[in-house]
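Technical appendix A lists one of the benchmark inputs used to test multi-chain prediction within the project. The record comprises two sequence entries:
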Amino acid sequence: MNYPSGTKKTNLVVKDHNNIIYKNRGMTLESEINLSNEYYQEMDKAYIYKKPTPIKITKVDYPSRDKAVIKEAFFTIPSTTDYNGIYKGKYIDFEAKETKSTTSFTLNNIHPHQIKHLSNVFNHGGIAFVIIRFTSLNETYLLPAEKLLHFVNNINRKSIPLSFIKENAYLLSDGYRPRIDYLKIVDILIGGI
Amino acid sequence: MNYPSGTKKTNLVVKDHNNIIYKNRGMTLESEINLSNEYYQEMDKAYIYKKPTPIKITKVDYPSRDKAVIKEAFFTIPSTTDYNGIYKGKYIDFEAKETKSTTSFTLNNIHPHQIKHLSNVFNHGGIAFVIIRFTSLNETYLLPAEKLLHFVNNINRKSIPLSFIKENAYLLSDGYRPRIDYLKIVDILIGGI
């Protein structure tokens, strides 16, 4: 996307009374997924939420009985994914990632622990996947965990080519409410197609 | 439990080659649940894990490109529970709490957001519950979310009497591996008994 030089990328809020939809303009994949999840929850369709960021706390001050202030902490390598929840009684689990590349998705975007996590979820009968947005192409895909695992376990490459994604993932269309209707694809995954 | 004065409560590690089991001695409910979850995972029986502690980060230093240090953060009121995961394809979600009381469990131990969370999980077909340990009695109960919700929505009291828990919850027995075999009770909940 092109922005006039000197203009800061901002998150536009789309108002209900406004018919103009600024598709993806300045809105991160994370924000769009959060909005979609809020919508699903309002509609009582699914209950999917973002997990807290994993950190390691090393110093805490207690200035008073109930007021703890963390004075030093570090971001730790996530052992699970960003999102999980429940839909139609099923356990749903996924990670969402953006890439600026126009040709491939680098695997070091996802930590080995997270791949193991998706594998665990899949093996126990959950619905696991990765949502990948190619920001420069303005294309967002849902790649089922089993396809990702197949790639990681069988193909000795450090990134997943877009061609593999086009063949094995589902293109997610942009919408208004929800912004990204990924549950449509989850329905297909549940159906086993 | 009584400890000789001046002796610090320590978490004894039970070694495999050691036949002595120090039941609960100095081990928190959280540690025992974590060990049980590890055991379930090793046995490939279930995949249940602890969520990161929710915090609000207010100051971060970046001394170098990849090394962020959180300099100020605060513990936030949890909007979800401590544990969730997957068992027999089902979404499992629970909170674990200890109380020193011998007569009741104070409801302000569980935040309203967490009760709402358990309600959401239950309404979407998940298995939701609270594990409550009465440390002074050395009794641990699994209270299904629907029973907790029934109490919260219908009984105008700030704590759940032990008698209600005895009547509506399942007593969890101590074990070695797993320390707390709560999935035995989950099997009953899944069975709908």
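The longest helix of chain A spans residues 29-42. The beta strands of chain A are 46-50, 55-64, 67-75, 83-87, 90-99, 104-106, 127-134, 139-144, 159-161, 170-172. Comparable benchmark entries are summarised in Table A2.
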